[in-house]
Amino acid sequence: MTINFFTHMQERGLIAQTNDADGLIEALDQAASKNPADIVGVYCGFDPTAKSLTLGHLVPLLGLRRAQDHGLRPIILFGGATGLIGDPTGRTDMRPMNTKEDIARYIENFSKLAGRYFRTDVPNAPVFVNNLDWIGPMSWLDFARDVGVHFTVAKLLSADVNKSRLEHGLTFMEMGYQLLQSYDFLELFRKKNCLLQTGGNDQWSNLLGGVDLIRRVEHKQAFCFTQPLIVDSQGRKLGKTSGNAIWLDAEMTSPYDFFQYLRNIPDETVEQSLRQLTFISEEEIRGLTASGSNPNKAKERLAWEVTQLVHGKEEADKALAAAHALFEGGGDLSSAPRVEVSRNEIESGIDVISLLAKTGVCASKSDARRIVQGNGLLLNGEKCADAAYKMQFKDFEHSCGGLLVRKGKKDYTIIVLK
Questions:
Q1: By the 8 A CB rule, do 377 and 397 touch?
Q2: Best CA proximity match to 89, nearest among 196, 200, 172
Q3: Residues in the chain with pLDDT values less than 70
Q4: 3-state DSSP call for residue 132?
Q5: What is the architecture of the domain spanning 338-417?
Q6: How many CA atoms lie within 13 A of 295 on its CB side?
Q7: What values do phi and psi take at 170, rounded to 5?
Q8: pLDDT (0 to 100) of residue 1
Q9: Which CATH number fits domain 255-328: 2.40.30.170, 1.10.240.10, 3.90.10.10, 3.40.50.1360?
Q10: Any idea what DSSP says for residue 72?
Q11: CA 36 vs CA 33, 245, 359: distances in Å
């Protein structure tokens, strides 16, 4: 049964790199024929560098759920220790340092967000661990002798995760990150029967470090594979601290905005996103993305499926209804994003530029002015090209319950009076 996990991931296009495909299949096959109580573990780590997990984290989380469905035990590791340092991967500068108290709060929220994707009523229920539990008690000297002795400086500097930072100033602390992550794999290999680590494609060097450490210390074979990353329209990874994150926490990215992000992804990324972020069958995905099919139908299905996974069916249905209402001129607008402005602001004669910036509809006044001057702003369906226009109370009497603002082709917000 477990042998199907790796082949399933391959067939679905969810494997970017692996250290030993044939060896992994054989190891899973052998494990499946042994004592059923001796369940093989597969893990992925998540560093608490922000309050919420992101859409990018959904790929490895669903990968772990696929592992659970094929008989493996998912191990979700939270980096209470590694989060204090920060992975230098993909960074041109050092990550902001969070306090221990912040990290503890982030992990608490991570547990709530990640736990919803797994079954707990099965023998291979998920295990949640915090690497601070085993790294925290270790002294620097113990770690240097037990782990550091197996890594050469030349090897660390040759890793892509470190190489890209050398010219910008890689710190000693950051260079040690790979050692900590490698030790996590060794600890889980010893204590949780964990034979496999997964991660994003940018984690390849770190994953190989763990496999090599297990080989050197335990003289046994372990395995790893990476999965393709989700990137934005500029090809950048959707990171927690890079300013382009789509959050899994509804308080940070509303279900409607979450839905709209997926509904508006480029046509050429829909097929892969359906494979990465949903459990829709391959046959149905091929039908949705076949030559001549309507890409908007596939994107709408993607948006609904992922939103219901993350926020529940009710929120997905509401987001879909709001999207139809905004784009097709009918339906329920109750779930469209809403912001407030004081009636006093209207009485004082606030102009449209200041209104957009004050309510957060635009990032700044200059951003708002650029949109207006580019003929990209509609108020209640009418184009507004006057940057000096003073808002009137009558502008907030649209049937949506406020002022219906559209930026560009697809970005809607309702501004209501308070």
A1: no
A2: 200
A3: 1-3, 35-37, 87-96, 160-161, 163-169, 232-244, 327-335, 410
A4: helix
A5: Roll (3.10)
A6: 13
A7: -75, 125
A8: 44
A9: 1.10.240.10
A10: P
A11: 8, 40, 57
